[in-house]
Amino acid sequence: MFELNFSDFLDPNHELLCAAELINWDELHEAMSSFYSTLGRRGKPIRLMAGIHILKHYYNCSDERAVQELHENAYWQSFCGFTCFQRGKILDATSLVKFRNRIGTEGMQRIEALFLEHWQSLGLVKTRRVSVDTTSQPKNIAYPTDADLLFNIREKIVRQVKKIRQSVGFRKPFRSFTRIGRKTLLKIKKLYRNKPCQQQRSIQELLSMTNRVTHQAMRLASSLYARGHKSSGRKLNQLVSVGRHIVNQTRKVLKGEKPEKRLYSLHESKVAVIKKGKAHKKCEFGSLVSLAMNDDGVILSHAEYQQNIADTKTAGTVINRMKSNTGLSPKILTADRGFDQSYQKQRQCCRRWGVKRLAIPKKGKNPHHDSRQGWFKQALKQRVKIEPVIGHLKTDHRMGRCRYKGPLGDTINVAWATAAWNIRKVTRLYAVKQAKAA
């Protein structure tokens, strides 16, 4: 009764309050309620959880910082559905992790489709001309080197063996190579940085140490299974398999061979090498992201790949997802030279995707046969707009480095980043539309 409502003292023209009016929260609650159970403790409100994720990527902050800002900022609380200022503890940072794991990729697809459908009903989403491009999304891992991988997997196996000895009580001798392993890694990092021959010898020494430790741990795991300690043996056996994989791939690298299914990180096993031909970064370790954008800068669909595939194989996926999100297919599709194909394949793609025209410049000296047409030139001018949008997604909305775990985390990070960008863009488009109407 004595609380001050937000409507009494907050600025109604603030960008967050204007953005909240462009989201149909009731339909969002109905669409996401299937992920919640009617039994047990009641979960946090869907608008609160979806709103704080949007704000987190809107202002490029971590889970802890987003929760802290929610407790301090009245505009954040109003965006998340509160009518008056909340003085107590609203939620914990771990609730955001649980919500992301709860909804998964299916929930994010529902949220994106709901947003685009509502904005399309308001006349803010156009699908006449669409630009397609690909970019890389680096994972939050250190730069992978053979020496670091060998050292880290050996340390992990040794720590697991120490835990097993404390709980089970094994007394068998186990050499860990802890002290000499650190000295060898230090030589590789500092002393032999500009001495490739000596550096290769030290890597070979680390390889033999890791191989010795994995063989010892393998025998220990088999004895654990024989004594009935299956859970401890299973954990140790998983580390042993990773260690053997790293040892085998390092042996091939030292011989000058190219190993298949190379492992680049211990905690992110499905990280791929993405080579985009950039001068400043030759290789990026993460996932490949394909985006489809209209002329107004609204991201209509996206797709993520855990491998460095050709650009031509990504266009069909984003177009089909765009049709499922908006219900319409573009009349003109434009892209850069990386999407170039023969004229016959382009006509087949147009029939398959429901696109009337493709504005993709040809590789080589011979230009496209429609390169002098007005619609072709205008489409290429509009295609350039997607490049700065990708830059904003990376620098402003947390797509520059994915901190969520696994391939699921890659999809979720791109989905929330594009949702935050779309909300900012649609809010400005709606303001321009209202000003013209006035």
Please specify the SSE layout and strand pairing.
Elements: H1 6-9, H2 15-21, H3 25-32, H4 46-58, H5 63-72, H6 74-79, H7 94-121, E1 129-138, H8 146-167, H9 178-191, H10 196-227, H11 230-254, E2 272-274, E3 284-294, E4 299-305, H12 315-326, E5 332-334, H13 343-353, E6 357-359, H14 374-383, H15 386-396, H16 406-437
Parallel strand pairs: 1-5, 5-6
Antiparallel strand pairs: 1-3, 2-3, 3-4
What do you see in this structure?
- Strands 1, 2, 3, 4, 5 and 6 form a six-stranded mixed beta sheet that branches.
- With about 450 residues, the chain is an alpha/beta fold.
- The radius of gyration is 27 Å and the shape is globular.
- The protein has 16 helices and six strands.
- The chain has helices at about 5-10, 15-20, 25-30, 45-60, 65-70, 75-80, 95-120, 145-165, 180-190, 195-225, 230-255, 315-325, 345-355, 375-385, 385-395, 405-435; strands spanning about 130-140, 270-275, 285-295, 300-305, 330-335, 355-360.
- It has three domains: about 5-100, no CATH class; about 125-140 and about 270-435, Ribonuclease H-like superfamily/Ribonuclease H (Nucleotidyltransferase, domain 5, 2-Layer Sandwich); about 145-255, no CATH class.
